[in-house]
């Protein structure tokens, strides 16, 4: 009886925690409906609230749009869908609207077949039925591939799918033969192989079916299609602008304006579907690029040119993937040279700053890799990145990486003076004085050392009590790098050099064998720069007994 009471108490004491996370939104392949992917994470908590058992499951919800027809107000319907479906974040309203427009204009190609043939929850035991769909017409192939994709999205099914050579062979064949006929079909099949590409042990399978090379061809084709769409849209837009200028109310002109609006809506719907295809294809290639030999093959097929072209897109998720891929490739000189040919810096400048934190962070890291090249540093300054990067110094999330890029730019003497026309130096001085550690961050002090080599920058550094604060900190912590910055400050003629009169004694007092040699060398260098007529060096040498120290250090063989 006592044991039963303990068991009941234990069961009551545990808690159940459930977390739902929204994911991608797609159109139903056969019905007028949206498919919302989401993830459910269930955790059983113990008496003290610590997790005892957890499980994660990928699910999907189908939103059927029975009222959708040619006359439906898409904007209002999209707003209603987002409001009623808690799985869709309000920020995806525009994406939902574009998908609804696509559904509104998609032809019903079921050919009289029952739309219920689309099985929401696929079963690994029904694989033979799904394979048979791959031998039918395009709508059936789309349904079949969508069902297999559901299975592939669960990692537990991948090994069993790997053994089904018939299915994999059929998928590869359909992709090779029919990818131009249906974007949904191509996206589904590439997504299936992408699921395999997430695990290195399955990369041989993808190589065997030459999916990587096929993805390269598909990406190249889709990018060219996008250029054609933009050209067509641009022509109609120019005509629309001309009509606005003429203020012509002629019925024929009104028809042209409506034609442009319709074309633009169609373009938006096509771009949404195309970007889904590009994302999954590029992600698959990025996974395969773990092998440097495979990466070299991609480079020979102009992967860099394709990626840089894709930077013109506005889809944040696609851009994050593209920039991440470029960052990986940029560590090799050949890839970096290809990026130079494609004017990559001009394309990256629009992303700094941007609202998306992950995109901004990965873009800065790509710029850091590129900033090792002198020509690209020059280009960064030309396109106006200097003030943009300086503005990021005030943000803790990007301060460190932005400072590293600026440090590289400051290595070139021709660019040092440009920092004086930004608010960079006041920010750096604030960071220096607020640093609580004995040793200042290497990136920060190195950057300051470079800037102190320019006379105009030094004038800003010494404004107010700037030099006094620097000297006080350097002498307190015996910091050789901070003293190196002060040494650079002391080399410039003019009013700033005269400020050192008050610190000659402090500097001379550091010259001894008791101090760290690097620090003493910087103090000596600073004193050597003080070519001030009114300074009595004989008195300094005698008062601080510097002659014996200097004679000892100047003996042959000691340096």
TrEMBL record:
Protein name: Kinesin associated protein 3
Organism from which the protein derives: Rhinopithecus roxellana
UniProt key word Transmembrane: no
Origin organism lineage: Eukaryota, Metazoa, Chordata, Craniata, Vertebrata
Example of a GO cellular component annotation carried by this entry: kinesin II complex
InterPro entries referenced in this protein's UniProt entry, alphabetically: ARM-like (IPR011989), ARM-type_fold (IPR016024), Armadillo (IPR000225), KAP3 (IPR008658)
Keywords noted in UniProt: Signal
An annotated GO BP: cilium organization
Signal peptide residue numbers: 1-22
Pfam families, per database record: KAP
């Amino acid at each position: 009886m006592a044991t039963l009471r303990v068991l009941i108490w234990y069961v009551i004491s545990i808690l159940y925690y459930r977390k739902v996370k929204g994911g991608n939104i797609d159109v139903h392949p056969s019905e007028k409906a949206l498919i919302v992917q989401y993830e459910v994470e269930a955790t059983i908590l113990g008496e003290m609230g610590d997790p005892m058992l957890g499980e994660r499951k990928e699910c999907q919800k189908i939103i059927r749009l029975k009222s959708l027809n040619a006359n439906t107000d898409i904007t209002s319907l999209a707003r209603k869908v987002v409001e009623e479906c808690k799985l869709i974040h309000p920020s995806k309203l525009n994406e939902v609207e574009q998908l609804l427009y696509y559904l509104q204009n998609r032809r019903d190609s079921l050919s009289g077949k029952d739309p219920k043939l689309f099985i929401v929850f696929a079963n690994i035991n029904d694989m033979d039925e799904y394979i048979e769909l791959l031998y039918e017409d395009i709508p059936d192939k789309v349904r079949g591939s969508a069902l297999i994709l559901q299975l592939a999205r669960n990692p537990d099914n991948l090994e069993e799918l790997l053994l089904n050579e018939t299915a994999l062979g059929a998928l590869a064949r359909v992709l090779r033969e029919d990818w131009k006929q249906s974007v949904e079909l191509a996206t589904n099949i590439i997504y299936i192989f992408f699921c395999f590409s997430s695990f290195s042990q399955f990369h041989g399978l993808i190589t065997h079916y030459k999916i990587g090379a096929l993805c390269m061809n598909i990406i190249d084709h889709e990018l060219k299609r996008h250029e054609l769409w933009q050209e067509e849209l641009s022509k109609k837009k120019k005509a629309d602008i001309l009509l606005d200028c003429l203020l012509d109310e002629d019925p024929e002109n009104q028809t042209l304006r409506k034609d442009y609006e319709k074309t633009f809506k169609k373009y938006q719907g096509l771009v949404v579907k195309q970007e889904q295809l590009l994302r999954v294809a590029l992600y698959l290639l990025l996974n395969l690029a773990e092998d440097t030999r495979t990466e070299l093959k991609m480079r020979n097929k102009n992967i860099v040119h394709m990626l840089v072209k894709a930077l013109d897109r506005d889809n944040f998720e696609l851009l994050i993937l593209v920039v991440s891929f470029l960052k990986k490739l940029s560590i090799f000189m050949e890839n970096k040279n290809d990026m130079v040919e494609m004017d990559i810096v001009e394309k990256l400048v629009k992303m700094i700053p941007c609202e998306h934190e992950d995109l901004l962070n990965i873009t800065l890291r790509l710029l850091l890799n590129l900033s090792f090249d002198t020509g690209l540093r020059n280009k960064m300054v030309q396109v106006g990145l200097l003030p943009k990067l300086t503005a990021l110094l005030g943000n803790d999330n990007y301060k460190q990486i932005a400072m590293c890029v600026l440090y590289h730019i400051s290595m070139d003497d021709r660019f040092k003076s440009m920092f004086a026309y930004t608010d960079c130096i006041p920010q750096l001085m604030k960071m220096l004085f607020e640093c609580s550690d004995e040793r200042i961050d290497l990136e920060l002090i190195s950057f300051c050392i470079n800037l102190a080599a320019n006379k105009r920058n030094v004038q800003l550094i010494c404004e107010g009590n700037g030099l006094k604060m620097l000297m006080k900190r350097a002498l307190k912590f015996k910091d050789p790098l901070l003293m190196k910055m002060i040494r650079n400050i002391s080399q410039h003629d003019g009013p700033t050099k005269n400020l050192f009169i008050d610190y000659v004694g402090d500097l001379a007092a550091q010259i001894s064998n008791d101090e760290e040699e690097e620090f003493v060398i910087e103090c000596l260098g600073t004193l050597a720069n003080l070519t001030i007529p009114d300074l009595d060096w004989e008195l300094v040498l005698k008062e601080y007994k510097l002659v014996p120290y200097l004679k000892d250090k100047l003996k042959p063989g000691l340096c």
